[in-house]
Amino acid sequence: MMKKKKVLVKPVKEPATDRTESVYQERLQRHIDELKWLYMELYDNQEFFDSLLENLKLFYEQRKPDLKRQDQKREQNPGWYRRNGMLGMMLYVDQFASDLNGVRKKLDYIKRCNVNYVHLMPLLDTVEGRSDGGYAVADFRKVQDKLGTMEDLEKLADECRREGISLCLDFVMNHTSEDHEWAKRARAGEKEYQDRYFFFDNYSMPAMYEKTVPQVFPTTAPGNFTWLPERQEFVMTTFYPYQWDLNYRNPVVFNEMVYNFLYLANRGIDVLRIDAVPYIWKQIGTNCRNLPQVHTIVRMMRMIGEIVCPGIVLLGEVVMEPDKVAPYFGTVEKPECHMLYNVTTMATTWHTVATRDVRLLKRQMEIISSLPSDYTFLNYLRCHDDIGWGLDYPLLENWGMLQVPHKKYLNDYFTGRLEGSVSRGELYNEDFVTGDARFCATTASMCGVEKAGFEQSEAAMGAAIQTDVMLHAYMLFLSGIPMLYSGDEIGQVNDYTYKDDPNKAADSRYIHRGKFMWELVENIDKPETVQGRLFARLARLEEIRAKEKVFDASAGFWILETWDDAVLGLVRESNDEKLIGLFNFSEEPRLAWIDEKDGLYEDLLTGNEWAASAVRVDGHGFYWLKRKKGETAEK
Ligand code: GLC
Predict the structure, then answer these.
(1) In terms of residue numbers, what domain contains 563?
(2) Measured over all CA atoms, what is the biggest interatomic distance in the chain, rounded to whole angstroms?
(3) What angle do helix axes 359-370 and 343-355 make, rounded to 10 degrees?
(4) Which residue is closest in CA terms to ligand 1's atom 6?
């Protein structure tokens, strides 16, 4: 072989700093006009805008080369987070593995669960007992002592990046803890800091707000204001009294919170979950939810992210009635959040489990399938919060299900009070005035695993596992990114020990925030155990999902009429691939009266060949049927 001639003259390289400088300028130019326009509309303050821009640049300069490289890669592939293999899991660091270093050591287990996107529940500094599960942040730049340090977080993020696992962190932007530096200074009487919150020296303004603003925690934290005796003033507290609402009319608040966002982004986070975002703008005479200014702020955050750290994805937590959710995607030209929780689908799913009637779910699927395919939902069965019954009541009323009695029915059903219910769980924030209540329990307990285990009934356990697997199969089939709740993969049931902890006892959400049971993980390879049965079946579904292109978030998605109100039929189609999903929400076998004349189908779980025509589906059973290759023509 001929030796290559040595190159004597080194190619002239553009200095790295200049290149990254031009990358930054190019991104800035793309957004500057709109950013300035929106900022001025809200704040009309050039000085603060200039200072915002200066700081954006600084955060960009401080971003690690690794992250900058990743940003550029993701800019080339903006749908990186929507690929078919994406599977999320949310977990509490302490409950899962004691601390951040513990989580790092458990990445193998996370990978074994086929998970490549981890949402670490709030881990920033908070005061025990006044923490709302970490959602009362005392310092946005400090990790809770018991969980580790910022360096540990960065180390974990680095390791995750190497392993191809994306990391999600909460950004609690509606409020700070009363123990945050700003709140302390405000309490001490510093006007500058009081202006970052909503302070009132008498009740006349709060009274006006209370006329139109609903309550988030009517039982555990009634009202939207808290009296501070030492100040003789009221402060606005939409959530718990120790969570002080930030005043985003003040540009300092916006700027400083943006810096906190970018600080976290620069630690190596991939997804930022913007917590309780609909609440961030307050206006007397309104319900202080979803106001237009909220959308302006989210749009600005999106642009700022695209300028400084375009590899970051914004996940909006919008737990609102159905028609309020999708607007947080913004428009295709002016996007806001990259991803949103599919909260309506989640609540509608459990409604369907209780009623065995898929009509409402079908309607919900129709709505989802009519949205632009760029809109990415995060699908889930359970999360750390309660289930609020945010359903389409006007539609349900047509079928004789009225809001108040229907919510009562659902709560009675899932607490196990109704005949035929296998679910176990507890009410949450029962409002004795309106009669309203929400519900808390784990997926497994809602599916009957807890009851069957308690009664030691093998038949009931089989049925419970079947329901649990069917619901996961359905969730994995939906359009968007699936998200598991840690513990669900091993069928963890409700944890009632929170009642012994005075800091938690009043908040039944802790029923599904228990310690992760590593002793149950030991069973996952034992097929005779509950964990063995559940874990293996979920793993199989996840593996199929990761392999099949038709599960990509960009695939077409619509409903398929089954002519049976207990069986949901769904279709995914991408290029020439077509997949049918059939999900039976009743405990009896049903016939799905479908008749797809476009060829033979393969059951992806068994490999059996089928005609997609009048398919019998077992009680709480399901099928994933894929059209066989080459079978596209009408037969
Ligand atoms: C979000 C969180 C919830 C918390 C609330 C207040 O809704 O999911 O757990 O209580 O925000 O921060």
Answers:
(1) 555-627
(2) 89
(3) 160
(4) 135
